Amino acid sequence: MExxxxxxxxxxxxxxxxxxxxxxxxxxxxxxxxxxxxxxxxADLGIHSGTLHSWVSWARRNGSASSDRPVAExxxxxxxxxxxxxxLDRLRxxxxxxxxxxxxxxxxxxxxxxxxPRQRVGQAGSTLRHGSSPxxx
Length: 137
Known about the structure:
- A hairpin with a 5-residue loop joins strand 1 and strand 2 (127-128).
- The protein has helices at 2-13, 21-34, 38-45, 49-62, 82-112; strands spanning 120-121, 127-128.
- The protein is an all-alpha fold.
- It has five helices and two strands; from the N terminus they run H-H-H-H-H-E-E.
- The model is unreliable at 5-10 and 67-75 (pLDDT under 50).
- It is elongated and about 100 Å long.
- It has a two-stranded antiparallel sheet with strand order 1-2.
């Protein structure tokens, strides 16, 4: 029981370490280029394997361990299957068609907003249609 309590106290007392971008990118590069496992590289560098795992996951999604840039090319293991490629092409074509229709509707919008002709009020509150004369009724 004492070891569990001591372990919990030790975890709670530990401070969160901050790593600079160069260190994070280097650690991720070691995992990605050498093929070593994340726990192995983490142990070599003296960091928690969960920390390194999050950096590697971030890098695979965004391009680098400290960057917001998306990956330019898919990794060799991330290739699309033919059915996925076909669906992606279909969705892109559908998006182009919708964008085209939106542009067409935007060009038509001024014509759709034409106000109806104003009505004039003649003598004694009678309503006259546009272009009609109160004389000759």
